[in-house]
Amino acid sequence: MPMQRVQMLLEPNQHKKLAALAQAQGKSIAEITRLAIDAGLEKLAQNEQQVRMNAALKAAQLLRDSMPLLAIDVAAELHQMREELDNELFSRD
User: pTM of the prediction?
Assistant: First the structure.
């Protein structure tokens, strides 16, 4: 893949850390910088996805909180529906 040349300024400590990593891994500072950028971009994307997910969960909670509570016993309703279905099925015989 063709690469684009960029120029950037680093703080002395950043350059020192990059140079140490490059030497330890037998790679160029440019390669280590590209790897660090890729890792940072991936982390930023994950963080952005987490932010969107949290916003969606918050919106869902607000919607849930705004809905009135139903005054029914779901288990009892299901039991009654089953009994009615059983009665209907057994009455066909």
Answer: 0.58
